[in-house]
Amino acid sequence: MAGWGRALRGTSEVARPRWRDELPAAVAAAAAHPGRALAMGLARSYGDSGLNFGGAAVDMTALDRVHAFDAETGVIRADAGLSLDGLIRLALPRGWFPPVVPGTKFVTLGGAVANDVHGKNHHRAGTFGAHVRRLSLRRTDGTVHEPAAGDPLFAATVGGMGLTGVIEWVELQLEPVAGAFLEVEDIPIGSLADFFALSSESEASHAQTVAWIDCTRTGRGVGRGIFTRANWSQRPDRPLHRAPRLAVPIDAPGFTVNPLTLRAFNAAYYGLRRMNAGKAERHYDPVTFPLDAVRGWNRIYGPAGFHQHQCVVPPAAAPEAMAELLNEIGRSGEGSFLVVLKTFGDRPSPGLMSFPMPGTTLAIDFRNRGEATLKLLERLDAIVRAAGGRLYPAKDGRMSGAMLAAGYPNLDSFRAHLDPGLSSAFWRRVQP
Q1: Looking at the 3D structure of the chain, how many domains does it have?
Q2: pLDDT over 90 (residue 269)
Q3: Closest by alpha carbon to 232, among 265, 203, 210, 208?
Q4: Which of 123, 176, 247, 386 is deepest in the core (most CB within 10 A)?
């Protein structure tokens, strides 16, 4: 068993309930395990926050049924195991879309709540949890709660990494859309200053904003990339997404991602996208879910896997901190083909442990080279911490407990709502 980054591996005893009436017994049995229990979805968390090595896990993916859907109001209630992929297939033909989505649609509703996922529209819509009306939470003592927004248990559960109970179902307010297309504009940028200027300019006029950054650049060229902004089109056509045509069926050699291939790819990709920059109408799938273009893309990093570092730093510190981070990465010769830079808005996240806060977020993958990679990540951590920022637990497989405590001021309040029958490899690792 491994997270999406595949750098951390272990075993768990897994129960797979197929019907809702099987869930109470599955949760009770898993919680009785000496290593305690954790609910799991499609395992798209990159590190170990969704894993329970040496313990038990309850696989929720077969519990994916819709309880109710009001096509007039866009309110849906569905099992926590329903994926965003399945939700879109149901909702889009009826004129609705999930209000917030991450870079992949292969996450469950329960996972989206537990990690309070965010998207390219955070400056407008906030996090996923901001659109959850109510949820059902089964605790390992056998009690079932239905907290709503504003309840302390709701705040602990949204972004709570599955540690406050097993989410049974989620009631979500969807977003109305005319069709399946977006009006997209790609703009080449030559520096971080360009990025911050375009972000500030675009947030009032565009629902989605994000930038791809060339991570190999340093000095005056740091921050070079492509800034993308988009709004939903009024085109009424609603074709659904298709399965990806490209796939990585086996592990690539461990040397596939290296300084030479990174420089070559980033230069070629920037040149191609710069040449094709401008405005276009595009289907939601490649714009909204770039991580789904190639099935099994995590195999590109080879059998040792990779670590992702995703941070957010406050607005005042962001220009200097992002320059320092990208220069450190560029000097290291490490990095990835997809580096995402985006600003978060000031809409408060509903969860005590939600990752987004006002500021700028940078997400980048690093091939797993053992101690050398961990040392690089520690240097990046120090920059983030000095800037008053935090790391994203859903992407993490190695942050220290001190780093978690420094970034999450509500940590002690969150602890008061933990379910003692639940645990994870991440949670045990970050304990004092």
Answers
A1: 1
A2: yes
A3: 208
A4: 123
Q: What is the DSSP string of 255-316?
A: TSSSHHHHHHHHHHHHHHHHHT-EEEEEEHHHHH-GGGSEETGGGGG-TT-EEEEEEEE-TT
150 falls within a domain: no
Q: For residue 305, give the CATH number of its domain.
A: 3.30.70.2520
Cβ–Cβ under 8 Å, residues 110 and 41: yes
Distances (CA, A) of 24 to 13, 15, 57, 137, 163: 17, 11, 13, 11, 17
Asked if residue 296 is part of any domain, the answer here is: yes
CA 421 to CA 405: how far, in whole Å? Answer: 22
In a domain, 219, yes or no: yes
Type of residue at 284: Y
114, 118, 101, 128: which is closest to 157 by C-alpha?
A: 114
Sign of the torsion angle spanned by Cα atoms 406, 337, 323, 277: negative
Is a pLDDT exceeding 90 seen at residue 420? yes
Diameter over CA atoms, the chain = 60
The pairing of beta strand 13-15 with beta strand 306-313: unpaired
Q: Tell me how far apart the alpha carbons of residues 88 and 260 are, in angstroms, rounded to a whole number.
A: 39
Contact 377, 309 (CB under 8 A): yes
Mean pLDDT of 280-300: 96
pLDDT surpassing 90 at residue 320: yes
Structure token digits, residue 336: 């990835």
Cβ-Cβ contacts under 8 Å for 259 (sequence gap 6 or more): 216, 333, 334
239 within a domain of the structure (yes/no): yes
Q: Which domain holds residue 393?
A: 181-407
The answer to whether 330 and 317 are in contact (CB under 8 A) is no
User: Which element (helix H / strand E) includes 76?
Assistant: strand 75-79
Rounded to an integer, the average pLDDT of 182-186 is 98
Strand order in the sheet with 66-70: 66-70, 75-79, 166-173, 132-138, 144-145
**What CA–CA distances, in Å, run from 357 to 91, 123, 127?**
29, 10, 10
| Burial of 333: CB neighbours in 10 Å, binned 0-12, 13-18, 19+ | middle
